[in-house]
C-alpha cells in the first residue's frame, strides 16, 4: 500500500468525485451540513419536498415510493452514479408521556422512520449493483437516551432508524456498501433549545452535565458526515457516531 | 478538513500496522510526528520514508510498559518542539496463548503494555495539554473490548475492555482542559498481529465478517486523523468501531 497515495486527499479534497444525495429538512440545518461537505469538493444534490434552490431536486412526497424511486433514477441519469446517501429527516417532539397520543407517534414514525426507509430502500439496490455506496442516516442522541424532554415516541422513532441502519449494514456489507448513523446531541439553532443558554439546557441532560461545555454545530455534523462519506470510512458499518459533546458515552 | 499543520503528534507503536499507517496519515495531514516504538530499526525506516517526501517526522525509542521511558519520550518532545497536541496511544501486544496456557507473566506483560502503557502516556502528556488548554488523545482499543472474539486470548480481550472504560472516564475528567479523548476499536486488521497466521485461518476469519474481508491499517488511520483534527472537537469519550460489521450493537 502506497500510503502517500492513499492519504493525499487528506487536506481539502477528501470527497472529490463523490456524488452525494442529501435528503430531508429535519431539525438540523441541511444547508449548513451541505456547505461543510461541499468544502471537501463533493457534488451534493439536495432533495427536498418543500421548495428548492436552482440545483436542488424536488420530490412531491418522500412517502411515495414511486416518486422517490423516480427522483433517484433521475439523479443517477444526470450524474452517472450516487456514491453516498445522507438522510436528514429527523424531527423530535418534546412532551410528557401523558400529553402524547397515537397521532403524535404516527406523525413521528411517518416523518422520521418511513421517509428514511423509503429513500434508503430506493438507493440500496443501486449501491448493491455498483458494488459501492454509503448510507448515512442522521437521527438524534434521543435514539440512545431521552434528553431535553424528548417524548418516548421520539426516542422510539430515533431508535428505529438506528435499527433500520444496522439492518442495511448487515445485508449490504458483502457488496461493499456501508450504512451508519449520526446521533447529534445539543446542536446550536435547533428548535428544542428554544433560545436557552448552555448552562440552562445542561440541567435537562441525564446527569445534568456534559464534558464539552458548549453546544455543537451543524458544521460538527457536517464534518462527521464528510468523514463517514469518505473512503477513509470504508471499513466502518453498522455504527452510530455520537456527535454530542460526550453526554452519552456507550 | 484534516489540516494538522503546526501540530505535534506522538504515535506509540508506530513502527508497523495501524501505528505506522497513522504516522503517515498524521504527517501527510501536516503534523510533526514523533514515532515511538521499541524497534528503532523499523521506526527509522518509517521516519526516513516520510522525511524523504518532505514531511516532518522523527523516530524515538520507547517502551510504553516502563513509565520512565514514556516520561523521557514526552519530556524530550516538549523540550524540542515546545508542545504536544496529539497523542495516539497505540502500542499494544497480542500474545497467542489459549486459556490454559496463560501464565502470570503473560497476563502481567499484556496488562503492562496494553493498559499501563496507555495510562503512562496519557498521564505524561496531560500536564502539557492542560497548560495548553488543548489536546487530542486517541487510544487503540479493539473490537475484542466489546465482544468475545474467538481467536484472541483472554488477557488481550480484558486489556482492550479496560481501555474502553479508561477512554470514557479520562474523557470526562479532562474535558475541562479542552482535551478530547476518544478511541478506535479495530476489528480484525491485517497487521503483524494477524499477518503471521496461515492463509487458511485468515480466510476463515474473513468469512465471519459481514464485509467478507479483514480491515487494512490505513482504514483505521483515517479515523485516527479525524479524531486528531479540530473537526472532531465536539466528540469525546467516543469509541469508533472500524470492523467491517463484525460487531454491530
Question: What would you note in describing this structure?
Answer:
The complex is a heterodimer of chains A (250) and B (249). With 250 residues, chain A is of the alpha/beta class. In chain A, 38% of the residues lie in helices and 14% in strands. Chain A contains 7 helices and 7 strands; from the N terminus they run αβαββαβαβαβααβ. Chain A has helices at 3-6, 30-38, 65-79, 102-130, 152-172, 198-202, 218-229, and strands at 19-23, 43-48, 57-58, 84-87, 133-138, 177-184, 240-243. In chain A, helix 5 links the parallel strand 5 (133-138) and strand 6. The longest helix of chain A has 29 residues, at 102-130. The two termini of chain A are 33 Å apart. The mean pLDDT of chain A is 95. With 249 residues, chain B is an alpha/beta fold. Chain B has one domain: NAD(P)-binding Rossmann-like Domain (Rossmann fold, 3-Layer(aba) Sandwich), CATH 3.40.50.720. Chain B has 8 helices and 7 strands. In chain B, strands 3-2-1-4-5-6-7 form a 7-stranded parallel beta sheet, with helices on both faces. In chain B, helix 4 (104-132) links the parallel strand 4 and strand 5 (135-140). At the A-B interface, helix 1, helix 5, helix 7 and strand 7 of A face helix 1, helix 5, helix 8 and strand 7 of B.
Set out the fold topology:
The complex is a heterodimer of chains A (250) and B (249).
Chain A lengths: L2 H4 L12 E5 L6 H9 L4 E6 L8 E2 L6 H15 L4 E4 L14 H29 L2 E6 L13 H21 L4 E8 L13 H5 L15 H12 L10 E4 L7
Parallel strand pairs in A: 1-2, 1-4, 2-3, 4-5, 5-6, 6-7
Helix pairs in contact in A: 2-7, 3-4, 4-5
Chain B lengths: L7 E5 L4 H12 L3 E6 L2 H13 L4 E5 L5 H15 L4 E4 L14 H29 L2 E6 L13 H21 L4 E8 L5 H4 L3 H9 L9 H12 L10 E4 L7
Parallel strand pairs in B: 1-2, 1-4, 2-3, 4-5, 5-6, 6-7
Helix pairs in contact in B: 1-8, 3-4, 4-5
Amino acid at each position: 500500500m502506497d500510503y502517500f497515495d492513499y492519504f493525499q486527499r487528506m487536506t481539502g479534497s477528501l470527497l472529490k468525485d463523490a456524488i452525494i444525495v442529501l435528503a430531508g429538512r429535519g431539525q438540523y440545518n441541511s444547508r449548513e451540513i451541505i456547505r461543510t461537505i461541499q468544502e471537501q469538493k463533493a457534488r451534493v444534490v439536495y432533495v427536498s419536498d418543500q421548495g428548492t434552490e436552482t440545483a436542488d431536486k424536488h420530490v412531491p412526497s418522500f412517502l411515495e415510493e414511486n416518486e422517490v424511486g423516480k427522483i433517484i433514477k433521475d439523479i443517477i441519469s444526470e450524474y452517472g452514479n450516487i456514491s453516498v446517501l445522507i438522510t436528514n429527516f429527523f424531527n423530535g417532539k418534546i412532551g410528557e408521556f401523558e400529553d402524547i397520543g397515537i397521532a403524535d407517534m404516527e406523525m413521528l414514525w411517518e416523518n422520521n422512520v418511513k421517509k428514511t426507509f423509503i429513500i434508503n430502500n430506493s438507493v440500496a439496490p443501486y449501491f448493491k449493483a455498483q458494488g459501492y455506496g454509503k448510507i448515512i442516516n442522521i437521527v438524534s442522541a434521543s435514539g440512545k437516551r431521552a434528553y431535553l424532554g424528548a417524548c418516548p415516541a421520539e426516542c422510539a422513532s430515533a431508535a428505529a432508524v438506528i435499527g433500520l441502519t444496522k439492518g442495511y449494514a448487515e445485508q449490504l456489507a458483502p457488496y461493499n456498501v456501508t450504512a451508519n448513523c449520526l446521533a447529534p446531541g445539543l446542536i446550536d439553532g435547533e428548535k428544542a433549545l428554544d433560545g436557552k443558554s448552555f448552562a440552562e439546557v445542561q440541567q435537562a441532560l441525564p446527569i445534568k452535565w456534559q464534558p464539552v461545555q458548549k453546544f455543537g454545530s451543524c458544521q460538527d455534523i457536517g464534518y462527521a458526515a464528510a468523514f463517514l462519506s469518505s473512503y477513509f470510512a470504508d471499513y466502518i458499518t453498522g455504527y452510530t457516531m455520537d456527535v454530542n459533546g460526550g453526554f452519552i458515552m456507550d | 478538513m484534516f489540516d494538522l499543520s503546526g501540530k505535534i503528534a506522538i504515535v506509540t507503536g508506530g513502527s508497523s500496522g495501524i501505528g505506522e499507517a497513522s504516522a503517515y496519515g498524521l504527517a501527510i495531514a501536516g503534523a510533526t510526528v514523533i514515532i515511538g516504538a521499541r524497534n528503532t530499526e523499523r521506526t527509522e525506516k518509517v521516519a526516513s520514508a516520510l522525511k524523504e517526501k518532505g514531511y516532518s517526522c522523527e523516530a524515538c525509542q520507547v517502551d510504553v510498559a516502563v513509565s520512565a521511558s514514556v516520561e523521557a519520550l514526552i519530556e524530550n518532545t516538549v523540550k524540542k518542539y515546545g508542545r504536544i497536541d496529539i497523542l495516539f496511544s497505540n502500542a499494544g501486544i497480542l500474545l497467542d496463548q489459549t486459556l490454559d496456557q496463560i501464565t502470570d507473566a503473560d497476563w502481567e506483560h499484556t496488562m503492562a503494555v496494553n493498559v499501563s502503557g496507555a495510562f503512562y502516556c496519557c498521564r505524561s502528556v496531560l500536564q502539557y495539554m492542560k497548560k495548553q488548554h488543548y489536546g487530542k488523545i486517541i487510544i487503540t482499543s479493539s473490537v475484542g473490548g466489546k465482544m468475545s472474539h474467538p481467536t484472541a486470548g483472554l488477557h488481550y480481550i480484558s486489556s482492550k475492555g479496560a481501555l474502553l472504560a479508561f477512554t470514557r472516564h479520562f474523557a470526562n475528567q479532562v474535558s475541562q482542559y479542552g482535551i478530547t479523548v476518544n478511541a478506535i476499536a479495530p476489528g480484525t486488521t491485517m497487521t503483524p498481529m494477524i499477518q503471521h497466521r496461515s492463509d487458511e485461518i485468515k480466510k476463515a476469519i474473513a468469512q465471519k465478517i459481514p464485509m467478507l474481508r479483514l480491515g487494512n491499517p490505513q482504514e483505521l488511520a483515517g479515523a485516527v486523523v479525524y479524531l486528531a483534527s479540530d473537526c472532531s472537537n465536539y466528540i469525546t469519550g467516543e469509541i469508533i468501531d472500524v470492523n467491517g460489521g463484525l460487531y454491530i450493537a
